[in-house]
Amino acid sequence: MILQSLSLGRSRCYAALLACALLAGCAAEPGANALDPFETTNRRIDAFNQKVDANLVRPVAVGYQNHMPQPVQTGVSNFFGNLSDIWSTVNNALQAKPKETVETGVRAAINTVVGILGVFDVATSVGIERHSADFGQTLGVWGFPSGPYIVLPLLGPSTARDTVGWTFDNYYNLWNGVDPIGARYTGTAVKVISTRAKYLGMDTSLNEVALDKYSFMRDAYLQRRSPTTWRRNRPADMQDSTEDDGADGGYEPDPPATSVSAPLNAVQDSSEALPLVQPGPPVIYQPDNNPNTQPTPAPENSE
Fold first, then answer.
1. What is the structure's pLDDT at 228?
2. Would residue 271 count as lying in a domain?
3. Sign of the CA dihedral 197, 48, 260, 236?
């Protein structure tokens, strides 16, 4: 009975997230950013998430990083990464990426069998790359636009499309089938802490660099989720992109988001508008080391 109630509650939670994502575009705030029409609400949710992180998640992650042996931390990260590779194989297949599908599938098989359920990352040591993919990306390949930017409670940055995708990613997560339920929730908590520990140094740098942390995170997330590696059927919001879309079968990772990239790009783009310097003969300046030398008087005007 308890398990059925929890399962029903989880299904209702998925349905609620799905409904929020689908209805997100119905009532935008007046005069809002086209990419972030619910900025006021998103900022409030983001502030709540930051408080939870500062008071609970981050301190636990610091303790985890400082006191947990490094081989254990690596094994935990590898184990959950292997579970993600299995779902990534499915999504790469749904996106019609044969090369990525085969490599990710082989990677998951090797790590599951030889790497003892993925605790040891044997595939990386033999040169098999990871090609991460999720259902939000699959929806984009199928032609669904990203929709408005959304900040989800406790889950963080998302979009309408990625929120729908997350419900499928979480529903088909193999870890959700683990029994007993106490072990499942304990493992989920360890996964969250392990993931948070990876970004302890990054959040310190972010606080020092970003003038507006919310805007920085929003722009970085939207850039990271920009489907520059999708091969075909780009959503309408990405049709104008001229970047490499991986049509040759190669994998090109997204460039890292930085707070200074926009000003640098603006300077480069405006280079044609700068005044040109006309070439001329070089002017040679020789210092005068004689202290007795008197300055040459200026010539008098003659009328």
1. 58
2. no
3. positive
